[in-house]
Amino acid sequence: MEFFLKLGQVGQHLPMLMRASVVNLELLGALLVIGFLIGTLVALLQVYGGRVLSTGASVYEWVFRSIPALVLLFLFYYGPSHFGLDIQSFLAASLALGFRSSAYQSQIFRGAIQAIPSGQMMAARALGMSKLSAIRHVILPQAFRLAIPGWSNEYSSVVKDTTLAYAVTLNEIMRYAKTIMDRQYDLAMATFIVVALVFLVFTYSGNALLGLVERRFRIPGLQMPGATGAVL
Amino acid sequence: MREGTMDALLLVEDIHKRYGKEEVLKGVSFQLQKGETKVIIGPSGTGKSTLLRCINRLTEPDRGRVWLEGVEVTSRKVDINRIRAQIGFVFQDFNLFTHLAALDNVRLGPMRVLGMRRDQATKLAREELARVGLAGKEDAFPAQLSGGQQQRVSIARALAMNPKLILFDEPTSALDPELIGEVLEVMIQLAKDGMTMIVVTHEMGFARSVADEIIFMEKGVIVEQGPPAQLFSAPRHPRTAEFLSKITELYGETEG
């Protein structure tokens, strides 16, 4: 009973918590876009880049997959000040988590690209398409479809990582929840339950959206994306 | 430009290709006239497919030269994409673009390589699909088509580029026997319409009825070449006779 009272008390903070959670969504959007663009590039370099470029891409991927997220956040936030640069916490967090996600996303895309039969590229080149044109019109449209299940896993993972940005003073939901707790310790439990619920909703709706995208772009006639074209 | 090659559409000269220790092609030369259909036959692993791929450099030959209407395809300076756009290629496994409907498979090349406008490319793609007997299948995806239909889409895809010649790499080998006929029919009609073609195949009936010349290859070299009547009735080389009798026994004579 007492607990529900506390939930009620948290209720008065709800508008601020929701507003703070929008920052998490903004950070999520920024890091996913950075991760998607760089991840795609890294995957393409690893598959088609030749020795030098693919090695470079692999080193990048190794670095950003190895360093803990918090360490990256601190490096990107506190690092630039050593060179007299002032970096905003949102930008630092977007870059740190975005680069990190790009390393993971690159492996999702690399797997998807390599799952496409080599004959597709050969047929495109035989038509006179350049490698880039073939990648754009033949390889990537198929690879992105194949990548959706793995990508929704990455989404579920990074949506939660956005709370780590509280460590670099970003005013997101976790930081706001912590201030509530610092002022009124007895509200801690109820506050973090609200935070947890917010992330349940974020994860659910994100995955539901990706499920819709997957169905929308499903290739007719294929049982599963990536299954070889069987005769019906 | 060499003597006696002015009239040849395609000139293949002394092609060599090695994979590791094994030399797959040991100096293959031949000519192809405009409107001619050449059929290449021979046992598996004798470099027939490699030879086709060396012509448009999907595989880089180690040595030798290829000329298309006087332009050296094998020159380092040539824009190979422009050459490939003029040479159709039909694969054993069709290699249709899985994510695209039949119509999009056929119009992708004209739009992205030839820079054709969308409405023009659409009209052309519809015509080419109708030409291979697939009117009404424009919106079907590869996975919704039978093997024979897929191969016909891939022929339409090659035709839509208005190629100077089409290379067929065992176009019926991946098909169920009852689907082979519909693909061969399309190819026979193409040959009759004057399309220049090189066909690697085991379909002796097709070779016999359509080929202007048959090339028998074995172990990376041309053993014998000549008009079908000569090869089938009076082969000069004992290996040719042996192969032909074996293959006819194995595959029979479809579409004869």
Would you count the extended β strands of chain B for me?
Answer: 10
Strand order of the largest sheet of chain B: 6-7-8-3-9-10
Q: Number of DSSP strands of chain A?
A: 0
Mean pLDDT of chain B: 92
Provide the gyration radius of chain B in Å. 18 Å
CATH fold-level assignment of chain A: MetI-like fold
List the helices and strands and how they pair.
The complex is a heterodimer of chains A (232) and B (256).
Chain A (H helix, E strand, L loop, with lengths): L1 H10 L2 H35 L1 H17 L2 H10 L10 H26 L3 H9 L4 H31 L11 H11 L4 H29 L16
Chain B lengths: L7 E12 L2 E12 L3 E5 L6 H8 L7 E6 L2 E2 L7 H5 L2 E4 L11 H11 L5 H14 L15 H13 L5 E5 L7 H16 L4 E4 L3 H7 L2 E6 L2 E6 L1 H6 L4 H14 L5
Parallel strand pairs in B: 3-8, 3-9, 6-7, 7-8
Antiparallel strand pairs in B: 1-2, 1-4, 4-5, 9-10
Helix pairs in contact in B: 3-4, 3-5, 4-5, 5-6
Name its key features.
heterodimer, A: about 230 residues, mainly alpha, MetI-like fold, 9 helices, disordered C terminus, B: about 260 residues, alpha/beta, four-stranded antiparallel beta sheet, 10 strands
Summarize the structure in words.
The complex is a heterodimer of chains A (232) and B (256). Chain A is mainly α and 232 residues long. Chain A has a single domain, classed as MetI-like (MetI-like fold), CATH 1.10.3720.10. Chain A is built from nine helices and no strands. In chain A, helix 3 (50-66) packs across helix 5, helix 5 packs across helix 7 (131-161) and helix 6 runs antiparallel to helix 7. Chain B is an alpha/beta fold and 256 residues long. Helices cover 37% and strands 24% of the residues of chain B. Chain B has helices at residues 48-55, 80-84, 102-112, 118-131, 147-159, 177-192, 204-210, 228-233, 238-251; strands spanning 8-19, 22-33, 37-41, 63-68, 71-72, 87-90, 165-169, 197-200, 213-218, 221-226. In chain B, the strands form two sheets. Chain B has a six-stranded mixed sheet with strand order 6-7-8-3-9-10, sandwiched between helices. In chain B, helix 6 (177-192) links the parallel strand 7 and strand 8 (197-200). In chain B, helix 5 runs parallel beside helix 6. The longest helix of chain B has 16 residues, at 177-192. Chain B is globular, with a radius of gyration of 18 Å. The N and C termini of chain B lie far apart (39 Å). Chain A binds chain B through residues 117, 119-120, 122-130, 133, 137-138, 141-142, 145, 219-222, 227, 229-232, and chain B through 56, 58, 81-87, 89, 91, 93, 95-99, 108-109, 112-113, 140-147, 150, 154, 157, 161.
